[in-house]
Amino acid sequence: xxxxxxxxxxxxxxxxxxxxxxxxxxxxxxxxxxxxxxxxxxxxxxxxxxxxxxxxxxxxxxxxxxxxxxxxxxxxxxxxxxxxxxxxxxxxxxxxxxxxxxxxxxxxxxxxxxxxxxxxxxxxxxxxxxxxxxxxxxxxxxxxxxxxxxxxxxxxxxxxxxxxxxxxxxxxxxxxxxxxxxxxxxxxxxxxxxxxxxxxxxxxxxxxxxxxxxxxxxxxxxxxxxxxxxxxxxxxxxxxxxxxxxxxxxxxxxxxxxxxxxxxxxxxxxxxxxxxxxxxxxxxxxxxxxxxxxxxxxxxxxxxxxxxxxxxxxxxxxxxxxxxxxxxxxxxx
Length: 333
Known about the structure:
Layout: H1 3-13, H2 29-43, E1 52-55, E2 60-62, H3 79-88, E3 95-99, E4 108-112, H4 114-125, E5 133-137, H5 142-153, H6 161-174, H7 180-187, H8 191-201, H9 205-210, H10 219-229, H11 232-252, H12 263-274, E6 286-291, E7 298-303, E8 308-312, H13 318-332
Parallel strand pairs: 2-4, 3-5
Antiparallel strand pairs: 1-5, 3-4, 6-7, 7-8
Helix pairs in contact: 1-2, 3-4, 6-8, 8-10, 10-12, 11-12
């Protein structure tokens, strides 16, 4: 019998003497067999033991090279995770962190697990102080940390194409001397696939700002715009349209429902501009209704930016009309 098998059986049989009942009748026999199986798995390298900790999330900060924009996390886009933690009574899957030395404010930096960090932090700040952040501490180089984060998040829909592209663009310079071939080999992806994301990260800032949110920009969008950006005349028109879209959205206000707030419309507009065509959709005018209290009399003012169209009932008396216009004018001041 091999030494491995000797160790297994020694563990199983340790503490058992002839005066004890047989294992087949002993209610605790399952415990001995489980212990033996665990030791066997460890000796055969089938068992990878890890030490996990539950800590205060306030003692953890995001790694500077984390591939998720933590500032964009909120209770809405993390609601599924928050509800899951509440249902389970705890965080089930650990975040991967590295130990920080010489920082009195933090003990760990988070390599993988930003959403879990936000969810636990949010719960603790909203009357659930019993929850703690489950972590696994690893000793990783920056390049290893980058690859680990990429493997964990590559297929996740909640990491945007643009976030991933910017992460890759920084990594190829930091860890692979600017050589896409080396990076693709380490990530085990094709050079063509990686090249598309690196191109996305190179989109002009004017185009990025044309979108209501940079995370709305898809890798397909960059591929679609690439032919226009490689031609100087087309590029100029696309950049001009990008600036117009950003200004239109900002002028309309934060809660605008104009077409420039839709990423599909933004891409279509940029393509149209690149082709030198004019096909501009008009924004829906913002409407404001002014009413006389305890009366059905009212006027409707539709503001489309350069014009205000006022609609009123034909039988509205002069006194009522004057009163409604006074309401309208007082709000415009």
